[in-house]
């Protein structure tokens, strides 16, 4: 039996997980990773990368074509009910009975997940308090705003106190204020330390803010896996982004020849992203001047996961999403 | 309205039990059934709309026709048609109920239910239980309206039981068809287009307005293969046709109890077969 860094068996163990849909579309190509108990793990990538299909397989709503996956010790193929008993999921799209009250939605979920009848009321009260739903519970969900509905769905997933919580793009479509409030709540769940959370997102700031580790998924494969800071450190501590009046690739080659840029530099059109890795920025600007290009705009900033993704895939994550 | 999400020190930590709680299937079934019932009650079209046409047949058309067609197989025509409209009511109600399943899949909580720790076939059984309850209610309402308009049902406990068994069998069969259609058809508008042929066409051949023996031999042979024909013959045997004329038209035998048993077996076989198939189709369609 494998065990995580804390000596306990991983909450999620995925080995060679593959999904080929009818028609031959290979959405997930041999993913392998582990998620430790209590860890917040991010699956990061643009739409179509295979994140939701992976979540679907881990929640037993998508059948794997090959490979294995275990959630809380139960195999997703041979013991799907065991997987579902230990987990809950917040879906990307609204999944709620709009004709019923918020309380009725929570109650149905609690009963289906086997919450003892005597505890259902107190559990609903807890999550309602936590998510500011107290005044809304007696209203039918079709009167809720989008943010209120989303909060209800997250609250619902917590009524059963799952060991593993899957959040599939939980903040998509929310206004910025509600989005940040929800991120606070997810952060609080992370800080409690007992619940394993798998979060898919294409918002890079969410991953950086919430996740203990991230897997960057590109075209069904994991192209990077690690702690966000470790992935960022691979690009150094500072990045210069230049927009010049010339094609970027020849200038990039010139800068490499002059050894004023480190690994991980790349060009998209006339924009160059240059990890400095201790090289003074002035040296870079001097080399650009020597090349004969004029700098139109300059930005100096710390690297982001966007840069990591871009370096690995050649496509800008946020633009692709 | 501005609402702030607060974070009081409430306990949302996961259960630490060694064994994860797996709910009792009986509890899951009752929860799913209760949910479907409440959703149906919130959707009057699922209960009341299917009643309108059959009641118009039974309370307007049948009394009018009864003036020129005094009796059919020894039964007053109004009562004959009143029972015949059950063959329209139950299929129409069950098939229209499939729209609710598509709504549930597309914009309801079905996906959360599919992630619940219970066999997904329980969803089909929960839906079926509500369909049966709604069908029985509708049949009672239809018979009540027919009685109020002058139809006569001379029956006893055994007769009611034959009739109830026929309704349960027919409703199970039609609900199974609705589950299959709803799982296969992706859009509501396509489903609405497919529903009338499935619900209505068999009814025209099943001896609703006239004995099946009055049709050409080829159509009579087809009618004998339809579960709705057997269900209507059973309903009439139980409620108005104690000599079993309808059953005789199907089986050509003299022992009415034996013929009724055979017809009930036919309806039951169709019901169980389609229910099993619909459960398989639903559970397979539920996962990609």
Distance between the termini of chain A: 38 Å
Task: Give the helices and strands of chain A as they follow along the chain.
Answer: EEEHEEHEHHHEHEHEEHEHEEHEHH
- How much of the residues of chain A is beta strand, in percent? 15-25%
What is the approximate shape of chain B? elongated
**What is the distance, rounded to the nearest whole angstrom, between the alpha carbons of the first and last residues of chain B?**
40 Å
Q: Briefly note the CATH topology name of the largest domain in chain A.
A: Rossmann fold
Which secondary-structure class do the elements of chain B indicate? Answer: mainly alpha
Q: For the CA atoms, what is the radius of gyration of chain A?
A: 23 Å
Structural class of chain A: alpha/beta
Average pLDDT for all residues of chain A: 85
Helix run count of chain A: 12
Uncertain segments of chain A: 1-5, 316-321
- In total, the number of domains of chain A comes to 2
Range of strand content of chain B: under 5%
CATH architecture level-2 label of the largest domain in chain A: 3-Layer(aba) Sandwich
Strand runs of chain B, count:
2
* Silhouette of chain A: elongated
Order of helix and strand elements from N to C terminus of chain B: HHHEEHHHHHHHHHH
Strand order of the largest sheet of chain A: 6-7-8-3-9-10
Mean pLDDT of chain B: 87
